[in-house]
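Go through this pair.

…
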Amino acid sequence: MKLSDYVIDFLVSKGVTHVFEVAGGSITYMLDSLYDRQDIQAVCMHHEQSASFAAEGYARISGKPGVAMATSGPGVTNLITGIGSCFFDSVPTLFVTGQVNTYEFKFDRPVRQVGFQETDIINIVKPIVKDALLVTDETKIRYELERLFDVACSGRPGPVLIDLPMNIQRAIIMPEEQESYDETRVETGEVSDDDIDKVFTLIEHSQRPVVLIGGGIRLSGATEELYYFLHKTGIPVVSSLMGLDSFPHDNELYVGMIGTYGNRYANLTLANSDLVIAMGTRLDTRQTGTKPESFARYSTVVHVDIDPSELNSKIKADIAINSDVRKFLAKLNNHPLGCKNISPWIDRIKQYKIKYPDYVKPESNEIPPNYLMHELSGHLPEDTILCVDIGQNQMWSAQSIVLRKGQRLLTEGGMASMGSALSIAIGASFSCPGRPIAVITGDGGFQLNIQELQTVYHHDLPIKIILLNNRGYGMIRQFQDQYFDGRHQSTGIGYSCPDFQKVVSAYSIPVAKILTIRNMAEGLEWLFEDKKPKFLEVLISDRSVVTPKLGVNKPIEDQDPPLSPDELRSNMVTDILEKEKV
């Protein structure tokens, strides 16, 4: 059989149903092998970056590796941003790239290029993939495909790339006679009984415990184990940005998101805890602030992560456990778990939430973004997949969206690519046809991959797009206000956006616009009244900012706008830092 046919058969055997691609000369054999298939579909995107984002969204919802394909040269280099996102956020993906014939490839010759659009993508992407391979021997394709697929899914997941020269794609092979890859996986570190006993003892004696959850909860499939653990112990839970959809927000144990743009009440909760059990999170600077030594400084920290390199990397843990989070929770749940009476702690957290709400009802006709997000929560269908872009809209969503059980929130963390949400939504929609999908984006980010509206229209995907229009790059503008005396170069000055109502209408997608608080409810009801693609533009003030926000070299409980020293002190069970004292 032709090697390109074998590659597609292999993907089908692994449960892959869609391949996201943009046509190009050096993948014509691969495209031809997808022609008229009933068991797998080629989804024609309109930019390779969008194809890579769609593969990311597909993988995060389906639990199977997403697959994107691109031609050599500009096609493969356009994939790079999405590849990086999958690497940083641990998303299993396979990138299949076309390459010039092996007899046109420069290999070690000291020339820049031999074949047309020849590009050494392998060496370009090596820092942001788990593995990448240029296939030069067609008799190895079975082994290498099986191996790369296993690498993408095992341990801490991530992207892999296979580069297929055209003469390799068209080669005739006998795969049943080729060597197969032995998928015997090296298990991650097993949780010792001694570590479990230590954690159990800490929980038993803690007066102010908190669980911090990250994206690893979803990646390990540990949401049910987490739910059981928290309800068995009654421990409150805070989340990182990537862990937002790992536990329902309407549950009494959920506190909020921590970090630089975290809910003030969540940051106060973590700062006052005496035990932090951090699971599936790398404790990056956006969680800890730029002064990591102040993070959870009065707590005993238990850190559980599948990647040993992340343990004790940024925060020194009292107990560092290299394990899959699901395995850890399963073993912990076998204990007769229980806490002391922590009702005073729960009451204190409730008071934080009352004193520092994440939204306020508007007193004018302007639409406060956090209030919009809160109101949007009530209109989202129960099984909605919410895809959130990068910028202020991401932080307003993270602070104030109320996710219910069964709902998902997809957003990028490590790469944080503005303009990714619409393409991620397309991939998510193909992974579960018919499921309601909502996109939250901004006027700046939306323009980066606006061409994918054609993909939404062409496939009649049930994607609802909510665009917050503040007529500029709001997050950077806020940064310029804080550190550059309000000189809005390229975020206001020099920036412009089109009439989105006309642009989206040109793609034959129904549009509407919310101008004031008076027509907000009507607009949201219109958006979700059917399962057709729709676009809702919401005008917000160009003065809208994300608050609270953590400044440089401050502990996470001391966000801006700052509380007075006396008020901050009144919120702390522990001492405030000397630098914070009057």
About this structure: DSSP finds 24 helices and 18 strands in the chain. Residues 48-62 form the longest helix (15 residues). The mean pLDDT is 95. The CA atoms of residues 414 and 535 lie 28 Å apart.
